[in-house]
Amino acid sequence: MSNELQLHTSPLIPGLTVIEASAGTGKTYSISHLVPRLLLEGTLPDLSKLLLVTFTKDAARELCDRVRKVLTQLGAPPAADESTKAKDIAELRLLLTAPEAQARLSRALLDLDLLSVSTIHAFCQRTLQQEGTLCGLPVLPEVITDDTEHLAPIVSEQWITTLSASPTLAALATVQKWSLPDTLKFINTLRRCLRPRSEPAVERYEDLIKRIPALASQLADTANWTALQEILSTVNNWKAGAPADSADAIAQLSPLIANETHTTAYWRCLPLAAALTDKIFKKEKAAHAALETSPWFAAARELHELTSRLLWSWQHHLAAESMPRLEIVMARHRLITQDGLIGALYHALHRPGTACAEQSSRLADRIADRYHVALIDESQDTDPRQFAIFKRIFLDARPKRQLLLVGDPKQAIYSFRGADLATYLATRDSAKADARFTLTRTYRAPQPLVAAINTLFDRQGSFLNPGMAFTPAESALTYDYQLIVDGCPSARLETWIVADDADKNFSAKARRSRALS
Q: What is the spatial distance between Cα 295 and Cα 316, in angstroms, rounded to a whole number?
């Protein structure tokens, strides 16, 4: 169980501390006051010993400005109304009576430029520069934001080489409209996932390709084809949009008996072959029963189903072939990406083998000597490598350093960039009970609206994740706002159910258009 964070009295002990802050509960405000508290209490001897990490450069600038503002307020004489209008500053000021607290504050005010708030990428880059030898990078490669310009030619070459060597695959790709830009986008997404789990499961591209000739031979088998013609000749009731009659159906399917898989005509008629039972009215019971036992129809459905999975497999195959080549190109040009910075520091801290492990330990000790406290903002959007880096430096140190994670799992939205909510939840749950806190008093909404939201989510399984439980919020506002519609107060919460006319299950275009209208 967690408890509400009290800025000035909640214990902040060495090791892992987790603060979950719901939207509008003053997360940045709390961080900007926790840093001076840690300084005045002596956990931070000076500002240079603090590692403060957030998700974006803009957030880093704002957080840095907020912390500096609080420190500056503490360094100035107290205002006459401070005890009523700036209660938290007044509470922090009480710590100045402790031995050496005033000296630490005075030093911090002189060294405000030592306060470093950065993104995880900036932290990794700085560490790789400072500890290049221990990291195995005596000279840091040039950092680039995007390596797509180096990846695209590699994928394009693989694409052309493979398709030109396989006329069958080239014809199928043409009919199914495989797209090189789409495949490049897929590879970029896949490689940013640390532990990708593809759904549906990926079959080996080579295995799928090998099965095509055997299935095509069954379709070209004279006996199988003759039996199919006999079945279709008995059909008198074809659905709208289907072949006009049995003769038309046989004519449309005839390219399949030529076994010319290198032609586009072959692959264009395959969908019809696999959907014959959908084209014939159910009252043609004899034809339906015969088709279900037809070797030709079974082969057509299996081939069609196989080719529908082939692009998925092909894209994974291209990714597996292209990524090692990209690493070679990047090394040759002495380049590294932002994500590569994280990977380089992670591997430097987790090298296998006794000798290498000792070097990793020396690196971790050097960084732990530099930083006594790490405060990680937006921690719900970090990935397993980032958590492993912070754990290695701060929690595995002897003695343990202070690692504070501040975030909100309800706002975890960056899984497409590798963020792993499961890793965050596991890390949160590893914290001791007295080191887990929440911020639940929101300053963005009046109590009636907060109560409505609480009612909506305060039930078991509301987030469809067993690791996430809803913590009811409360409003810190002393006033109320309510929307007036046609002179009448509106409901605090309204739900609209809008029909979705989109043809595809994954499309929301029609739903969004209607909702906006």
A: 31
Distance CA 298, CA 290 (A): 11
At 117-146, the pLDDT tens digits run 899 999 999 999 999 999 988 888 999 988
What are the distances in angstroms from CA 419 to CA 254, 305, 372, 407?
Answer: 51, 33, 26, 13
Superfamily of domain 3-135+339-439: P-loop containing nucleotide triphosphate hydrolases (3.40.50.300)
Per-residue pLDDT for 508 more than 60?
no
Hey, which bits of 44-194 come out as E strands? 50-54, 117-119, 142-144
For residues 490 and 457, the answer to whether their CB atoms sit within 8 Å is: no
CB-hemisphere CA count at 13 Å for 232?
25
pLDDT for 515 beyond 50: no
- 59: buried, middle or exposed (CB in 10 Å: 19+, 13-18, 0-12)? middle
Calpha distance 238→236 (Å, rounded): 6
Evaluate whether 214 touches 306 at the Cβ level (below 8 Å): no
Q: Residue 485 has what DSSP assignment?
A: E
Q: What does DSSP assign to residue 350?
A: S
Do you find a cis peptide bond into 399, omega within 30 degrees of 0? Answer: yes
Buried b (16+ CB within 10 A) or exposed e, 187-211: bbebbbbbeeeeeeeeeebeebbee
CA–CA distance, 339 with 337 (Å, rounded to integer): 5
Host H or E run for residue 4: strand 3-4
pLDDT digit string, tens, across residues 32-88: 999 999 999 999 999 999 999 998 889 899 999 999 999 999 999 999 999 999 999
Domains of the chain, by residue range, sit at 3-135+339-439, 142-333, 461-517
Residue 209 makes CB contacts below 8 A (sequence gap 6+) with 166, 169, 310
| pLDDT tens digits, 416-427 | 566 678 888 999
Q: Where are the alpha helices (DSSP H) in 235-371?
A: 246-253, 264-268, 270-274, 276-279, 285-292, 295-332, 338-349, 354-370
Residue partners of 445: CB distance under 8 A and separation at least 6: 24, 453, 475, 477
